[in-house]
Amino acid sequence: MSRIQVDTESDVVQEHFAIVWTKQRRRKRFPESCVQQMASPAEALAAANSHVNQFPALVYGPSRSSEGLRVYYLVQWLE
Questions:
Q1: Which residue of 11, 34, 58, 76 shows the fewest CB atoms closer than 10 Å?
Q2: DSSP H/E element including 24
Q3: Any domain includes 27
Q4: Domain range for 33
């Protein structure tokens, strides 16, 4: 995965714990509609349900894509 450039002087785009809806965990970028932010890693782990393709993750975003969509970038999957 290419490194995400982080603007340390801005607080618009940040890291968040989240639940990500995805069929394949190979993707590194997710539309906003597939990400639900959580308050903590424990909350994300508790809310995850792999049977319905909900996985806990640390994501970076939301950011604007070149297509004008708000997207989140995967930092790491939580286990």
A1: 11
A2: none
A3: yes
A4: 14-77
